[in-house]
Structure formats: C-alpha cells, structure tokens
Amino acid sequence: MSQAEETTPRTPGIPASVMPASSNGRLAPPRLHELSPQNLYDKCMALARNLWWSWHPEVNNLFRELDPVRFRQLGHNPIALLAEFTPERLEARAAELVLYSRINQAYRRLKEYLAAESTWSHVHAGVLGSKPVVYFSAEFGIHESVPVYSGGLGVLAGDHIKSASGLGIPLVAVGLFYKQGYFRQQLDVDGYQHQEYLHSRVESLPIDRAVDVEGNPVVVQVDTRSGPILAQVWRMSVGRVNLYLLDSDVEGNTPEDRELTSRLYGGDTRVRIRQELVLGIGGVKAIRAMGITPGVYHLNEGHSAFATLEAIRGRMDRDGYSYDEAVRRVARQTVFTTHTPVPAGHDRFDGGLVEEHLGPMRDALGISHDHLMSLGRVETHNHDEPFCMTVLALKLSRRANAVSALHGHVSRRMWNSLWPAREEEEVPIGHITNGVHVPSWLSWQMLQLYDRIFPSGWFRRMGEPDVWQKIYDVDSGELWETHYALKNLLLQFVRRRLARQCRRRGECDEAVEQARTVLDPNILTIGFARRFATYKRADLVLSDIDRLLAMISDPDRPIQIIFAGKAHPADEPGKELIRKIANLRHDERTSGRIVFVEDYDINVCRHLIQGVDVWLNNPRRPLEASGTSGQKVVLNGGLNCSILDGWWAEAFDGRNGFAIGRGETHAQDEITDQRDAAALYDVLEKEVIPLFYDRDSDGLPREWIRMMKNSISSLAWRFSAHRMVMDYARACYVPAAGGVSCDMANR
Ligand SMILES: *Cc1c(COP(=O)(O)O)cnc(C)c1O
Q1: DSSP 3-state helix, strand, coil percentages of the chain (rounded to 5)?
Q2: Which of 137, 381, 534, 569 has a Cα at 20 to 30 A from 233?
Q3: What was the pLDDT predicted at 11?
Q4: pLDDT for 357-416, tens place per residue?
Q5: pLDDT tens, residue by residue, 206-219
Q6: Would you kindly state where each structural domain of the chain is located, as residue ranges?
Q7: What secondary structure letter does DSSP report for 622?
Q8: Is any ligand 1 atom within 6 A of the Cβ of residue 273?
Q9: Other residues' Cβ atoms within 10 Å of the Cβ of residue 375
Q10: CATH fold group of domain 439-456+465-719
Q11: Which residue's CA is the closest to the ligand 1 atom numbered 8?
C-alpha cells in the first residue's frame, strides 16, 4: 500500500502562509528551543481537541505528516495519533520535519480565532449577545473521526455549526452521543451489504465532560411513568461553538436505557421516543444546568421537538407564566426546520407511548392527555391520530422553514390541513435553501488557485456573490489541470479501496491486481453516491442496460461510473439495489468501468466530490428536500447532472450544469421513472458526453471549462453554509430573539 492512499487528497506543498521560516530562506527563529517537548505536545493536543483543525488544511497536514500511514489507519483521528507519541518522540519527529514554527503558528491562529471579536455576527446579530441560539439535531457530521452522524441531515448540521462559528454567531449545539455511531458497510462476495458497529473509545475523541455552574459534571434526569432516564453530557469544541452530546450510558439507568443512545436510528418506536426524550427534554435541562439562557431554540428536524415542552415548563416555573403565556413566549423563540417531504417520513407515536413518556411532563404543565395529544395532531380531536413530532414542532414554533424553494411548496401543501382557513400559499412555512461549509469541502488544490485570483480576505466573505465572479479570471488550462490532478487523486483512492475490498473478500491476486488498475483519468467520470433509499433511484441509469453499455464501451467517447452509499439496515430493497450495482463488476461488458466503493462516509464523500467530472443525482421529484452533495461538487469544479429537484430546481440556469428532464412528474411512479430514464440517457448522450470530449488544439474542452466557471460563479456563494446561516440569522434568529424582524417565515 502506498502512503498516500485514502488520506484526504495529498498536498504537494504547504500554503505559503504557514511555511516554516527556514524554508523561506530565513533562519529559524531562536525561540524554538524554548519549547519543551511537553509544551510542544500540549500545543498539538490543543489543536487536536478543537475540530477547527478539520477545516484548516495546514493543520490537517501537520497531523498527517507526523505519520501518514498511521493517520490514515486511525481514520484521520489526531488524538488517537498523538496518543502513540511520547512528547520526546513527537519533538524528535517535529525536528526532523521542521514543524516547530508551523505548530506554533497553527496554535496561535486557533487562539486568535477563538478570541476574535470583529465577526459578521457582531455587526448583524448583536441582539443574540449573551443569549445564544440553541441548535438541536439528532446527528452531527463534522469529521469522519467523530462518528455521530449517518448522512445528509447530520452533515448539514455539522456545516451549519461550522459556519455559525465562522460568522461568530452565539450558538450552542445539542445532540446525542452515539457510542457505536452508524454502521460500517461491507459487501460480501455476492454484493450483499453487511453492517458492523464499532465502539468509539471516549479517550480518542475530542470530548470532555460538560460541567454545571458549580463545576460538577452535568447529569440530567428525564422522568417517565415507568421511571427516570439519566444522561451525562459530553462537550465538543467545533471552532467557537460548543456541541453538547447527551449519553444515556450511565450508572443508575437500566441496562436497556444504557444502550439507548448507543446507535443512530437503530431501535423501534419505543427506543425512538426515548432517544427523542433525552435529546429534547434532556437537552434543555442540560443547557439550563450549565447556566445558559437560550435566546432562540432551533429544531433541526422534528426529532428534538420535545425541547419546546421542557422550555415551556421552565418559563412557567421560573418566570411564573401561565401555560398559555409560556407557550406563546417559547413559540416566539422557536425556529423549526423541516426536512421530510413525505408524510411517512415523520416520527409518529401512539397515545400509550406518549402517556408513558410524557405523563410527568403533562402533570407539570397542568394539561390533560387529550390536550397533549392535540399538540401532535393535525385533527386535534381525532383520537385515532397518533402524535406526530413534526406537528408538535410546527405548532410550537413561530418560524418554520423548508430547505429549498421547491420543498417549501411541497411542505406548505403537505401541512395545509394544519391551517385550514388559509390558502396553500399562505401556510406559514418559508424556505431557506441548504448550503455547504466551503472550507470543509473545498480541496486544497482549488483553494490555492482561488487564493491567487480572488480578492484578499475572500474566505471571510464566501457567502457573497462578487467574490466568486473572479473565477472568470482563472486561466482555463490551469483550472483544467487542477481538476485533472484532483481526478487522478480520486482514482488512486478508488483503486486502493477496491483492492482492499477484494483482499478482504479473499479474492484471487488477479482480481486484486485488476482493481489496482481500473478506471482511466481520461475518461468522463461520473459519481453517484448517496443513501440507497429507493426514491433516489440509484439504478435509474441501469434501466436500459444496453444503452448504458454502449456509452461505457464507446471506443472514442466512453464513460465510467463510481457508485457509493449505504442502505439502512432494515431496508432490504435498498440492499438489493446495492447488490445489483456492485455485481456489475462481474459483467465482462462493463470492462471494469462501473465500480462500487464501500462504506460511504464523510471521507469517501470528500474524495468523490473533489474529483468527479459529473455528479449524478436522479431522485424521484419532489422527494429530495434539498440535497447538498452536489453543492460540494460545485466548489471543486465538477458539474451537476440532476433531476430538477431540491436545490437543483432553483440552481440550474441552463448554463451552469445539466438538467435531466424538465421537472415533470406523472401520477404513476413507473411512468415517471421511464420518462426520467429516457431523459437521463438523452442528456448524457446529447449534451454531457459531446461537451466533455469536444477538445481544442490544446486538448482543452473549452465549452466544458466555461460551464465549470459558470457553475462556480453562480452557485458557490449561493449554496454555501455561510449564506444559509446568514439567512437564518437575519430571517429567524434575530427576530426570534426579539430583534428587528425582516420577515420571511414569520407568522
Ligand atoms: C454531504 C453528504 C451527504 C448529503 O448528500 P445528499 O446530496 O443529500 O445525498 C450525505 N452523506 C455524506 C457522508 C455527506 O458528506
């Protein structure tokens, strides 16, 4: 195995700003020797313990260079890496690599970052002051080394809090600590998915116990009719943001309850309501114990909606408000973001489960079982209707939003019955389209290119359009070469992963050797990676296999496709889809040009979105609320080819990528699927492939590069998490905290 495999794309150099003094031709500063081994070690550990390092390539590189092979083997976890060094050995290694001034500089930058006062928020969201936004989410995807996420919702939450940190928004985040995280995926020889759960070691994670105002470790208790559930609280630093993770694995809980928060989306509805109880009610109690007074509650999806009930109880207790008044006040402070465009996707609980788990809460609120149930019902007096978390969130928040313009329409239609007196357009659910955290997803190579051409300080203004217009000043040949280098890194990564997969399955040497050489950087490379939910139709491109094979084996203009993605453990149709695609490698006719990379996670995603030519997305419209992976592709020069759904429905302008179809759907899914498949083949054959292979005398695809630039200039700022969080701040946080309202989702 080579050393470069599976790391984030290798960096050929070090950014000038963090060059060691000696490599600039100047002498190394004499002060270096004052740094004792322990001092050096402590600084490295301080860097490793704030996830700020993960979106700063120069710090990431520091850790990697200490031991590239181990860093990769340890899943890019710098704490686990440092644990293998003594201070003395670290010092020796740092001396060998001349790392002192880079470590010092990184440490100083972190300190400056944490201390900075002149942030965007300082000017635009001052009202939040000492009363922060409390952001609840059932999962957070921050880095592959912290496995408390499963997919898109978590990564969005991670990107949200990173941008909140960057913009200086006073925000604390609340989630659950999943000791076993989400599963690791392995396919067997037949292509069938197997799940493996790993136990995280707390010592190797950047977390410590949260303490209350008196300095004691926080333990919260949530009462139910069948006994209390206890949870301890871990604190994780994500730049300037504290993320608090509740963990039910504590003494005093029953053995089952100790397992409650061990896995994401693992259990039945009883486990689910208990997890949500810990997240929502436990979360508000934990925040209170730490002496934090929330200015705003932001519920990222309905899982955490019980938080509102605990907040209401708190206002009644502490401020002496009546129930009705407390409800009004909490709702005014609460922002709800819905992510699910299908009714079946929302958590629902029957009356028995609700009474068992919220009985003590309703006693404290002084409300009847019926009244409590009505808060989670569309038809308040329909005793057969279960309790829906989304309904609770909608009723107890003054501001609610969907995550793309199209999803806004879908959500207003879906929930119109909650506001029967209103027309569909007047249903008070707005939209704020999702975006991605640029520093986390932009490759180091593209960053270098942008840094040279973009206005200085552009990194703080990446949510603004004019910054990105400069992409037209970038030399086309250079842009293409940078993309080509990234594509090569992706192919190296994929080959090594495939070889490893073959070895693990005990396949013959020949197969391993073949895996090492598959794929060709000169061939149009399409990526498709996402959860294998059936509505995402991973097999749409296989609908007419002969037509696909003709494209794949075209002698002059072939294509190759890289697939990745997990199916939920209980989703047999999803697993079947994976099997079907993974097994295409045995089909001679594909010439090894369709591959499946196992265990899709943030790391695999980063490689894919940085290296593909085209990112394929073909969900059944309008079921993709937003999607964000395609936004990550934009930053790195890849082009989107997508159904007009989610963010793409508002992003596509005819010159910044490719649309599959025109956004029509049919009442019958089979007909929609047939039409979309035909449209997909058409756009590939008539637009994507010809444009990619149309080269000038220098071998450059001029029109393709033009489209890359159009994509970057029109989309990168708009679909950045900085823009998204600024929208939340202006339209939701500031008014919810009592500042001047610029209404958008206000009721
Ligand atoms: C960005 C990301 C997603 C979200 O992508 P979609 O476009 O919603 O499919 C999912 N999983 C991982 C690991 C990601 O990094």
Answers
A1: 50, 15, 35
A2: 569
A3: 37
A4: 999 999 999 999 999 999 999 999 999 999 999 999 999 999 999 999 999 999 999 999
A5: 999 999 999 999 99
A6: 32-115, 128-184+194-431, 439-456+465-719
A7: T
A8: no
A9: 23
A10: Rossmann fold (3.40.50)
A11: 627
Question: Which one is predicted more confidently, 320 or 5?
Answer: 320
Q: In which band, very low, low, confident or very high, does the pLDDT at 34 lie, cut at 50, 70 and 90?
A: low
Output the pTM of the full model.
Answer: 0.94
CA angle at 651 for the pair 648 and 653, rounded to the nearest 5°: 115
Spatial distance between the Cα atoms of 683 and 662, rounded to a whole number of angstroms: 11
Query: Which one of 605, 617, 640 would you pick to mutate in the ligand 1 pocket, going by the greatest count of ligand atoms within 8 A of its CB?
Result: 605
- 10 pLDDT exceeds 70? no
Which structure tokens are listed for 436? 């991605």
If you take atom 2 of ligand 1, which residue's CA is the nearest one? 152
Please give the Cα distance from 645 to 439 (Å, whole number).
26
Give whole-number Cα distances, 217 to 175, 209, 261, in Å: 17, 6, 19
Residue 361 CB partners (closer than 8 Å, separation 6+) = 223, 281, 306, 309, 310, 313, 372
Give distance in angstroms: CA of 324 to centre of ligand 1. Answer: 40
Q: Which of 318, 335, 342, 315 is nearest to 326 (CA)?
A: 315
Across the chain, mean pLDDT equals: 93
Whole-number CA gyration radius for the chain: 26
CA 120, 126, 128: angle at the middle one, nearest 5? 110
Distance 141 CA to ligand 1 centre (A): 10
DSSP labels, 65-120: HH-HHHHHHTTS-HHHHHTT--HHHHHHHHHHHT-HHHHHHHHHHHHHHHH----H
Do the domains at 128-184+194-431 and 439-456+465-719 have one common CATH topology?
Answer: yes
Q: Tokens 């038809």 sit at which residue?
A: 379
User: What's CA 138's distance to the chain center, in Å?
Assistant: 12
Half-sphere exposure of 670 toward its Cβ, with a 13 Å CA cutoff? 0
pLDDT in tens, 164-205: 999 999 999 999 999 998 899 999 999 999 999 989 899 999
**Rounded Cα distance, 415 and 429, in Å:** 9
Cα-Cα-Cα-Cα dihedral sign, residues 471, 475, 476, 478:
negative
Q: Given a cut of 70, is residue 23 above it in pLDDT?
A: no
DSSP 278: I
Residue 27 pLDDT > 80, yes or no? no
Cα–Cα nearest to 51, from 218, 199, 240: 240
CATH number listed for the domain at residues 128-184+194-431: 3.40.50.2000
118-150 tens-digit pLDDT = 899 999 988 888 899 999 999 999 999 999 999
605 lines ligand 1 (CB under 6 A): yes
- Evaluate if residue 29 carries a pLDDT over 90: no
Atom of ligand 1 nearest to the CA of 530: 9
Q: Which single residue is written with the structure tokens 């997969």?
A: 501
The residue among 173, 162, 171 whose CA lies nearest residue 56 is 162
Determine whether the shortest distance from the Cβ of 709 to ligand 1 is under 6 A: no
